[in-house]
Amino acid sequence: VKWEPAPSISSPDGKFEMNLRGRIYVDTAWINDQQDNENTQATEFRTARLGIEGKAWKDVKYKFEADFAGNEVDVKDAYIQWKGPLAVKVGQFKTPNSLEEQTSSRYITFMERASFTDAFSLARQIGLGLGTSGKDYTVNVGIFRGANATDDEDEGLTFAGRVTYGPKMGDTQLHLGASFRHQNKGDDQSSIRYRQRPHAHLAQNRYIDTGRFADKDTFFGFEAAGVMGPISLQGEWAFVKANIKTPTTGENDPTFNGGYIEASYMLTGESRAYKGSKGSFQRIKVNNPVFEGGMGAWQVAARFDRIDLTDETFFGGEQDTFLVGLNWYLNRHTRFMMNYSHANIKNATDVSKNDVNGKNKVDTIGFRAQVDW
Amino acid sequence: VKWEPAPSISSPDGKFEMNLRGRIYVDTAWINDQQDNENTQATEFRTARLGIEGKAWKDVKYKFEADFAGNEVDVKDAYIQWKGPLAVKVGQFKTPNSLEEQTSSRYITFMERASFTDAFSLARQIGLGLGTSGKDYTVNVGIFRGANATDDEDEGLTFAGRVTYGPKMGDTQLHLGASFRHQNKGDDQSSIRYRQRPHAHLAQNRYIDTGRFADKDTFFGFEAAGVMGPISLQGEWAFVKANIKTPTTGENDPTFNGGYIEASYMLTGESRAYKGSKGSFQRIKVNNPVFEGGMGAWQVAARFDRIDLTDETFFGGEQDTFLVGLNWYLNRHTRFMMNYSHANIKNATDVSKNDVNGKNKVDTIGFRAQVDW
Amino acid sequence: VKWEPAPSISSPDGKFEMNLRGRIYVDTAWINDQQDNENTQATEFRTARLGIEGKAWKDVKYKFEADFAGNEVDVKDAYIQWKGPLAVKVGQFKTPNSLEEQTSSRYITFMERASFTDAFSLARQIGLGLGTSGKDYTVNVGIFRGANATDDEDEGLTFAGRVTYGPKMGDTQLHLGASFRHQNKGDDQSSIRYRQRPHAHLAQNRYIDTGRFADKDTFFGFEAAGVMGPISLQGEWAFVKANIKTPTTGENDPTFNGGYIEASYMLTGESRAYKGSKGSFQRIKVNNPVFEGGMGAWQVAARFDRIDLTDETFFGGEQDTFLVGLNWYLNRHTRFMMNYSHANIKNATDVSKNDVNGKNKVDTIGFRAQVDW
Fold this sequence. Notes:
The structure is a homotrimer. By secondary structure, chain A is an all-beta fold. The first copy, chain A, has one domain: Porin, CATH 2.40.160.10. Chain A contains 2 helices and 23 strands. Chain A has helices spanning 99-102, 115-119, and strands spanning 2-3, 7-10, 17-33, 39-56, 60-67, 74-83, 87-94, 124-134, 137-144, 157-165, 168-169, 172-184, 195-196, 208-209, 214-228, 231-244, 255-266, 273-275, 280-282, 297-311, 314-331, 334-346, 360-372. In chain A, strand 15 (214-228) and strand 16 (231-244) form a beta hairpin. The two termini of chain A are 14 Å apart.
């Protein structure tokens, strides 16, 4: 039995292990746009999750988590994994795409992930995954069809893959990565759309939105990051080429893109925790936890995030967001976050939400109390 | 590891602790009203809950419970609490109001709480709470906005506070308490209404109901209780002044009120368990548990409950209920309950449910098997 | 603490015990019918369950499981049981009917149970059960009203009972059983209908369906099975007589029937695990588990399944299904399954799904990865 803060129970021979997992994020936010379509002041559980994770016969891992935020059920990771020279996974898990998507929301720097991750619908699906990894690299591929939330006759097919390389250069931890995803919607599924909120999940509006029009798309994403002691830089850029389901004369398939660049600094001297064999960021080690006499870890961060859903004859809109954040890690499992964001929207033809020129501006302030076990 | 009946696991240094929590209440009831609007004979899980509770770094407590009764999700307590000289709580929990509302449903004397608690919508909200307590007193205040179930643009604000004093006078345990709550609904939230079922959750009808009309209200409640060995007396009275959202000429803001007086007697000699530092009743200690050769604890109880939702130009109705109950505690975690209630309704202008004079009578018989761990 | 693969924690004095339970079945299937109404290629979690089970004071058992497949909540077993000379159960559990229904889906031979079990709506209800058992027999009766999913004013009543006898004759384990169920729907509940999918839960259509017409029915079922080393034979036949709620002139109450005969063979020499004191099949013991150097257990099986919902003036349809299956038990808790089925449908007057002569043919191929802990 190990504690931190929940017990991890294991058998004396090391063959079996089980953890109870859970997390609660309590959010409150203020959101206002220039067109006065939204004046949000509200709270929510961004995440309220219970689950279980275990190891059996050393090489088999099972995991099952469900989220109850909003008093609805959303099954998250739910899979069985065998880990030999090759790791084989069956069940529901994320398609292998994007550094920020692969990093748990517990460890990302801002309250929400980059705009492109949701806009291009990176998400969990039901499928089969194969992966291999070394100390500083990962290779993952997967084939997917549908998810726990889908209930269609023909659920289409998705292929995805990701490679990462994360060498240590002296004191600097680097990360380079690239991934793709090709999804083909089933005949009776609704078409694909691309849309995104401003930087706050409590926002009632998505100011940029292409509407539904595509039956297939192909995603490419590129990732880079570096950690030098307390300083961290991180950036990604991604493209998605969408195939119009029923093109009219003169209509061409559009390509949308989005990405971000982020800089952060740990005021209290810690480093962001990168793991080369996972190709993602992990739990930060706090030098002086609050309940052991310290002041915890303090982090400041800034980000520029861009998503462009306007191309060819599609005017979904462009959203450029400037973000600053302050994080206080009381210990390894408790974090308070404060985010401010300002978004400039243009070329968004949804005039019910934006002005006649397709422009708008949105400000958000958000606070989060986060605990996981 | 301590057992009763579920394991509570703690680390050797006492810094960490975790419990799995759960409860099941299986109910069946017969309900009939004089107007023959309802002839219920049905069953339900009144509560079917799973959750987790833990301590981390000694002073931090986290709790997360979800209810699955009716095959729907309802997140209950979900918060993080730091307990120093001042206890600070963030998350979803009950506003600090009413002795019976603050007492877990596992420990209340009848199958349902007093009519006024639901009628005046005492409930869990998402917020921040501050509290302090001594051996025989508690002081709690909180500020709240929305809940896990709400999804509004403007979720309003609620302020609440409660003080209790519970001195031991010789062999007599006293309890005195008072609380207030002021809630201000957000602009886009639906208006407040006041309504209540007869004393049975399986009832299909709420015979008294004001309809929705208020955007703000202020609640005051007063509590008193005494435990003298096997005898217990308990009473509360509460008032709510409601602010009409869009008053018409001659309409004045109404004030509604409700309360109850209860007497109970432990036939087998136990005492109801009051805790002054919590300002609420706790788990009864059973002298001779059934599965250890005893006959368990037996309790008889009677209550008069009143709720008056008729004032000014509002004829929500008055409901006076007489209740008797018989409880059999097999052990500290298992209880069988039998309740009979007779309600007199008057001045309730909803003639689809009541007679032309606004009157009705409702009889209920309910049985519950309750287990928690 | 015992492991396999989840920990079962018990107190040193043996009075208390607790297990965390869970199971995930990941399914994918291809389904096609002759009339081209369905061309399914999809995935789902057939089951995604978390729960808890415990023993308290030696003789009391509690169990609570909830299923989250499809992102919906479905409370499964949720009861308290006292086990003395007589076992008394209160809560939600299955009515005591059918060998295959009483056998956990983890241990049945094919991916879905016999057609008649769903068609005649054998299911969990809220009620009170009494049972007694010896080494080779079981007797169970129960009275039920409604379920966690029902919310009706009058939830009717159901009576059910089952007896089994499972003697060991030399090396042969026999099982004989019979059960009945009488259900009477409440006045305000919707009428009973009988219908069934082909042999795949992902199927979008139920080709046979009587529509809703009955307010009462009586079920009789007969069971037989034999296990001789690796060979197992199993069969059931069941009848349900339905009472038409509002019969028109010349309409008589119909009687429907269904059943199956199954043969299976463990290629790797194991035996199916029957338990006479439970009257059902249990977990198979795998001789050479995969993660301990073996090849697991391999099983082949064939079944003929029939359900006839055409009688008197009702043309719900007849469905005869031929099934073959291949199961690979990696160890006691992990199983991969492959099922192929071919169904012949006739006398099914739903011409939106079948041809003008009421005929159709459906082929299904299904794969499952199953884990439980």
